[in-house]
Amino acid sequence: MSGDTDWVEVYMVKKEDDGEEVQTSSPLWSEERCEELWDRVEEVRHKLTRILNPAKLTPYLRQCKVIDEQDEDEVLNSTQYPLRISKAGRLLDILHAQGQRGLQAFMESLEFYHPEQYTQLTGKQPTQRCSLILDEEGPEGLTQFLLLEVRKLREQLRNSHLCERRLSQRCRMAEEERSRAERKAQELRHDKLLLERLRQDCESSSRELGKLKDRLLEQAVKYSSALEEQGRASIREKELLRQVEELKTRLTEADKKQSDTTKIYKSNSLRSKAVNGSSPAVMENLLQRAEVQKAESPKTPTNSSDPSTGVIALMDILQQDRREAAEQRQELCDIIAKLQGELQSAEEHRDKLESQCEQLQLKVSTLQLDWDTEQKSSFTDS
């Protein structure tokens, strides 16, 4: 309380000193001066209504007794003035209606709460004398008003500290969230690169699988052509065997004919020997019978040797063809076995590539699902 009393004494001295100033500077609040100041206020009315806070000014104006509770309630709580700009405009109208006292109270409130606007309107630096409160309420009223203002400022300071702490906490949370988001983004970039590599591997495996399928198809075509060739060789071998059987039959028949011819020659030679010791009539008879047999088979001695020679040559040719066909068949069997081995290895490689491709596709789908989930979660968090 001693500090308040000392301030009041000092202020009273200043008030006494100000009394002389007021007496000597009474033209400051003359009617012309007031009109000039109001004109300046109207010139910057739009700017002032955007800056002023009526809830902050009305307590001081009520202490100065230029507005009452009804005016304060109208300015602050009326539904006709929902915006702060309209409330500030209505407050200026009420103060303008109060004349010189309203202007003085408004200027002192500007001097106290908005010193920059006070300096722009009056061209003077603020002194914060609060002369109207001293005139109306005295030093005690001013002290009470200032104490209330100090309490309000302390409350505002406490609220600002609380707001600062809340903002700091939110800032830390935002920083942590940003760090998590950066880590997630880095993980997503890594997963994206991995997904791209897996896609490339899958595409290369698919291309290799296509090449293997082409090779498998080519081997299948070769295999089918080899089977057809083997079938044709089998048919040819059967035909050659049939021809060999026919030639064997013909050779047997030729051997029989040759043996018959040999028997005939032997019988004729025996008869010729017998004729040499017989009568001329019997000899003549035998000669006639030999001529008849010769007439019946004139080419038997000559043809008996030719068919056997031709059959043997034909048999040699057929056996040579049969050996060549057997060799060709063996070659075809070797080719078929080789193609079957290549086909089996190609099928095993194809199955292996298909399993690898399926695994890669499963990994790709899993990574794609994880990517989509991370994208959705990141969008939800943001």
TrEMBL record:
An example Gene Ontology CC term for this record: cytoplasm
Keyword terms of this UniProt record: Coiled coil, Phosphoprotein
Recorded coiled-coil stretches: 164-257, 322-370
Keyword Coiled coil: yes
GO MF: CARD domain binding
GO terms of biological process kind: regulation of apoptotic process
Domain CARD stretches: 33-125
Signal peptide: none
Pfam (any one): CARD
Domain of life: Eukaryota
InterPro entries, sorted: CARD, DEATH-like_dom_sf
PANTHER family: CASPASE RECRUITMENT DOMAIN FAMILY, CASPASE RECRUITMENT DOMAIN-CONTAINING PROTEIN 10-LIKE
Protein name according to UniProt: Caspase recruitment domain family, member 10
Species of provenance: Nothobranchius kuhntae
Lineage: Eukaryota, Metazoa, Chordata, Craniata, Vertebrata
